[in-house]
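HUMAN:
Could you generate one sequence with tokenized structure?
ASSISTANT:
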Amino acid sequence: MTSRGAGPALSRKNYRLSTEPEKSKVAGIVNSRLLNDYLHRVFTSADGNQPAAAYRKHLTFQNLQEHLDRLLAEENGSEDSRDQGAEGRLGPSTVVLDHTSGFEGLLLVDDDLLGVIGHSNFGSIRATTCVYKGKWIYEVLISSQGLMQIGWCTLNCRFNQEEGVGDTPDSYAYDGNRVRKWNVTTTNYGKSWAAGDIVSCLIDLDEGTIAFCLNGISLGTAFDNITRGAGMAYFPAISLSFKESVAFNFGSRPLRYPVEGYHPLQDPPVSDLVKARRLLGYLKNVIHIGIDVTEGKLVEKDTSMWQLQGEPTVLITLAHIFNYFSPLMCKVYLVEDVLMTFLLSILERGGAVEAHPLIQQLLDLMWLLMEEYEVHECLKQLLMSLLRAYRFSPIIPDLGLQIHYLRLTIAVLKHEKSRKYLLSNVLFDVLRSVVFFYIKSPLRVEEAGLQELIPTTWWPNRFTKEGKESKEVKEESAEERLRRRAYERGCQRLKKRIEVVEGLQVQILKLLLNNKDRGGGEASRYIFLNKFRKFLQENASNRGNLTVLCPPEYMVCFLHRLIAALRFFWDGHKAKTPAALSSDEAYVPPQLFYNGKVDYFDLQRLGGLLSHLKKTLKDDLAAKANVLIDPAELQSVTMDDLDEDEESATSAAQSQRPSAALAIGGALARPGWLSSPTLGRANRFLSTAAVSLMNPRRPLGALEKVKVRTLSVEQRTEEDIEGSHGNEGLLLGRPPEEPDQPITENSLLEILDGIVMMYNLSVHQQLGKMVGVSDDVNEYAMALKDTEEKISRCPKRRRDIHEELLKSQKVFSEKLNHLSRRLAWINVTIYSKEKMQDIYWLLRVCIRTIEHGDRTGSLFAFMPEFYLSVAMNSYSALKNYFSPVNSMEELPGYEETLMRLAAILAKHFADSRIVGTDIRDSLMQALASYVCYPHSLRAVERIPEEQRISMMKNLLAPYEQRPWAQTNWILVRLWRGCGFGYRYTRLPHLLKTKPEDASLPSLQKPCPSTLLQRHMADLLRSDRDLAPSFLNSVLNQLNWAFSEFIGMIQEIQQAAERLERNFVDSRQLKVCATCFDLSVSLLRVLEMTVTLAPEIFLDWNRPSSELLLRRLAQLLNQVLNRVTAERNLFDRVVNLRLPGLCVIRPQACHIPSWGACHVRWIAAEVLSPEDTCILQVT
């Protein structure tokens, strides 16, 4: 290693030069003549020419530094050129965003003052440098595609929350969201932008024009004759709405799309750039030229297979090069322009990454010959440049750019020491490495080359969510069949290209999950585990902070790649350990939820708060799992305690931080998608509050019952995770119900747990969001079909109408062509068969995890709620979101999975161990949806009889003090199709007012369950206490619902009869309709009960029969009197035909009431004359 400014540290004393051939052959030290030739070949002059041997200076390692200084000074020249480049510009040489005075509104600015996020209605900010003469350019990297106005403004422009760049005189902007240009007035201009695009902003102050480019393609001149003259200078500026984000490049990095004749606002480091390129040339010469010590001559080498092989002469030569090269590689511009370009050129020859070991050798050299801080900064800048290049590369048909950058990322991460440093300090702390696993969807299919890849378009007919066609479709014509097959071939071509990218992304994760690289410290997998857990904590604990949350579209891709990598290692362990489980049998053992080895942050458990569970179930933990909770864990921590301790904890934490952290206000460095110094308080709270709650790790004792404490992420070691010497690691505290069988490596279990959490955080939401493209295709297809039918019916004499219809047809066809190609991309990246199998695998993992947790009895309460949520949501996604081409019924074990999920819903919707209101409601709603579809209802009927009876008993529990509406709805669905006039899908009078939507559970065709009805009847007959309590609660709720309904329609009637103009509140109309629906459904449950078990009303051996029959008769009389009387209140309100009350019709109450009255003939002889008369009248 050399010391800066003091000459080479490698002296003649350490490396003696030999002139004796026999010594050189043995030791590899070259003689002076050969060394001289070698050094002159390596260190050529600027023009590349070498002087004749007789005229060139004799070089040795002693005078090499002087020779290098002379060579590097040859092309530096004077500094005048740099000053000339600054003409026409005012401001600091380093251009950033003006975060001190040049902004309006609330904005979050990145740490380097080049990225910004809008945090108010319409915030604006400008740069610190302006221009008044010449041609200038800067680039904006679009991170979100929302409402933004990007361009130029003068110092006199005044912005507010409503007016931004382009809304005032002397400010000019381009808006790719609305595809317009702005300068007080607005007109159409340019193309729509998308996240991942780069906008170039150009201003020519000599000609007075402003233009814009999108991904290097000119959009044309936007403005001409802009105001110029004395006092007029233009700043780069932007206005953006809430949550929108961009990053600027004023020249601190090489421009992605430079334009000839235009200068970046910030000058490139020309001198350093020339020096770095020269030094890189010397490095290439070293790699290309070899020394044959035996023959005493120089030889040409294959650069791709170059290795250092411990040659002292070569090593000393490289040390001299790196003495100058190392400081330059700490600058982002030089790393991106010189180093990354060189490394990419190595991989351009093709082949696997393993076929290019030169990159590994170069990284070895960097760690050997550079200072540690220099290597760290260089690797950080290299990965930042790679991530930026990958994220903002345009999509081309073969995805070549994305593949190129991913291959280099893999090559860098293959180097063990570099990988561990990047994992520990960069990939999750500075960068958002999840971006590497994202494949962005093209908004403009023509630029992505999808027209060439998928020349023929096709769109499917509308399907139901069950995977069946909703309407009868005519047999496919030959032309349609050819189009469909051509479209499918195009989709397959696209799929193969995307699979290449996905394979590279999985390779990256396999490198990060390597647990065999223990040389020099902790294995990569355990570093990744701790960072991954922190990543999950950020996204789970900052749901309202959009600057910290990982975008859901990134999470979807990351989830699928992580599942692929996890299953690879899981099955690899299975191959080595036959007794372990395969990935097809994977689950998370229940002890992870209570032994404190895995942090679940503040996520809710099934049994409530973790602190409460530790107190109430500490005896069960000791008895079942041999786990004792540390007394310190039982001390409740209130928010007041946190507030009191926060200041002291903050100061204590700051005292241990380096001075660099204190210089920025003492805020801990915390990554953000575009982090901001303005979040210092939030950073401090999130960091110090978390640290104050952490407990120091204690070694596990050898007691019979193990005392455990929750470990923070930073405190865990490989031993804490995997265990050793009797320590079970993550599996500590195995309950007796859990089989004593190896599952897999403990670290893989934690990754699996994190995958389930990821799905719950945002993946399911994104899966539902992307279905919108498929819905758009269906809507446009219906519109096109309707237009074509109108064209066929249009009279020939109406040419004007015919021409308009042809224009509409063309518009719909073009839109469908665009959407069908975009849908192909989305289906491949999100809804493909392989992605569906991943979600199905995740569903089965959750089912097995819940089943194992359920067997632990009371300890089931420790399970996080998200396991049940993911089980329900993943099933919903498989059923509703994936293409009918990938039907769930084709998945292996589909029927069994459906039954096991049904058993979980049936058992746990009324489980006393589950206390959370939200999760109980979700279980109830999931069960209600489950019984609406024939396939899932049959699965409920296949669960064990004991569980079916228990489910029906819970459904028949009294309605008071619980959410009874969903319970009642489940009973109604079990009855629909069997009641009196109850075989329609929806109310007959609504069939024409709204199109049928097959996705709604309430609009499914009747599919009654006679088996569950029989269980209900048996329970009502056999349990003499259950029947009266259930019926009384139903009658009470019916009395309340119908009374509320009548009261509301009276208010509506009174408002309608007033002479002055009145408007009925839409919310009141909605509540009124809801009360009516509840009344009708309760009447149906009464009808069901009367039909299935009439003896509970007529068996006089039951003490409650007479009372129940009287209540039934009186309530039915009340209902029918209200809805059947001529010209009554009910009819008058119905005839008003108010919007929102279309569901209210007399027959909706008539029919179930008649069904419930069928016992009147049996009851006539046992009732009093008055009650008999009531029944006869009804």
Notes: The longest strand covers residues 135-142. The first helix runs from residue 21 to 27.
